[in-house]
C-alpha cells in the first residue's frame, strides 16, 4: 500500500501548491482558538460563507479551518480549485492559563476524509509541559492520515516556560528551527511556523526542515499592508514555501486586494511596494 498512499499524499499536497511549489493558504480557526472577538472590527467576516466566498474569488490557493466551518461553508468549495485543510487540534482562550500550553483533539482523521478535505493539520507546542501529549496526538493523526494517503501539516509552535527562560522568546530562530526539524523528523508533510525576524535565520529554519515545505504563520494584522507584504517577501527569499494567513486577510474590510497582493509577492516575486500599488492598497 505504501506506493498508493504516497501517490495520494503527493496528489493532495498539489491541491495547495501551484507549479512553483508555493502557496497562500487562508487560515480560519480564530473563532475557536482566539475567540470571536478577532472578528469584531470586520464583524461580517464572522460568517464563514461570506469570507470564504471572498477569499476563494480572490484566488487563494488553499483554506485551513476546523471541521464545523467546513460543514457550514463547504459548498463554497464546490467546483473550485482550492485545497482544503482541516485542523484536528485546538484550544480555547477560556481554559485555565496553565493549560494554554496544550492543544486538544476536536475531531478525527475520518471526519476530514468525510468532509472531502485534502489535508489534515495538528499543532505541537514544542517545549510545552504537555509536549508529550501533543507528540502522541500528532503521531496518531499522521499514522492514520498517511495510511489513507492524506498529507499531514504540523503547526510547529515552540512555546513553554523553559523556552522563555533559556532563549528569551519563542521566536528565537534556534527554537523555531528546532521545532521545524522535530516536525520534519516526525513525518510532517508541511510545516507552519513563526517568523524568526530575519531572512538569514528563517533560511536556517527552512534548511533544518530538509525539504519539507515551511510556511509562515501570518500573525497579527499590520497597520500598513506593505509591512506584511515585505514580511512575506522575506519568507520567500529565505526559501519558504508560502504563508498561512488569517488576520491580515479577514481583519481587512476589503480582503480581496490584500490577497491578490500577497499572491503577487508569493507567485510572481513582485516587489511588495509594487504589488501593493498594483492592488490599490497604497
Ligand atoms: O495558529 C494559530 C494561532 O496561533 P497563536 O496561538 O496565536 O500563535 C491560528 O489560529 C492561526 O491559524 C494562525 O495564527 C494564522 O493566522 P494569523 O496569525 O495569520 O491570523
TrEMBL record:
It comes from the Archaea. Keywords: Cytoplasm, Glycolysis, Lyase, Schiff base. Its EC number is 4.1.2.13. It is an enzyme of class 4 (lyase). Gene3D superfamilies: Aldolase class I (3.20.20.70). Coiled coil: none annotated. This is fructose-bisphosphate aldolase.
Amino acid at each position: 500500500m505504501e506506493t498508493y498512499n504516497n501517490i495520494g499524499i503527493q496528489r493532495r499536497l498539489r491541491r495547495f501548491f501551484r507549479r512553483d511549489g508555493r502557496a497562500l493558504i487562508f487560515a480560519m480557526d480564530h473563532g475557536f482558538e482566539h475567540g470571536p472577538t478577532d472578528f469584531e472590527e470586520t464583524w461580517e467576516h464572522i460568517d464563514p460563507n461570506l469570507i470564504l466566498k471572498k477569499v476563494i474569488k480572490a484566488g487563494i490557493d488553499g483554506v485551513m479551518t476546523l471541521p464545523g466551518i467546513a460543514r457550514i461553508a463547504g459548498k463554497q468549495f464546490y467546483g473550485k480549485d482550492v485545497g482544503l485543510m482541516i485542523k484536528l487540534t485546538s484550544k480555547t482562550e477560556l481554559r485555565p492559563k496553565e493549560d494554554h500550553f496544550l492543544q486538544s483533539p476536536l475531531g478525527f482523521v475520518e471526519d476530514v476524509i468525510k468532509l472531502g478535505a485534502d489535508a489534515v493539520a495538528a499543532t505541537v507546542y514544542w517545549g510545552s509541559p504537555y509536549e508529550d501529549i501533543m507528540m502522541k496526538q500528532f503521531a496518531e493523526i499522521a499514522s492514520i492520515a498517511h495510511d489513507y494517503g492524506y498529507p499531514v501539516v504540523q503547526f510547529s509552535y515552540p512555546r513553554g516556560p523553559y523556552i522563555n527562560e533559556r532563549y528569551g522568546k519563542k521566536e528565537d530562530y534556534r527554537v523555531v528551527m528546532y521545532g521545524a526539524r522535530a516536525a520534519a523528523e516526525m513525518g510532517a508533510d508541511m510545516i507552519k511556523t513563526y517568523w524568526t525576524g530575519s531572512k538569514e535565520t528563517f533560511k536556517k529554519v527552512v534548511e533544518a526542515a530538509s525539504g519539507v515545505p515551511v510556511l509562515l504563520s501570518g500573525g497579527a494584522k499590520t497597520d500598513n499592508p506593505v509591512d506584511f507584504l515585505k514580511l512575506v517577501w522575506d519568507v520567500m527569499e529565505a526559501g519558504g514555501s508560502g504563508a498561512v494567513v488569517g488576520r491580515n486577510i479577514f481583519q481587512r474590510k476589503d480582503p480581496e486586494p490584500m490577497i491578490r497582493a500577497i499572491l503577487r509577492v508569493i507567485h510572481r516575486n513582485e516587489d511588495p511596494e509594487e504589488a501593493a500599488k498594483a492592488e490599490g492598497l497604497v
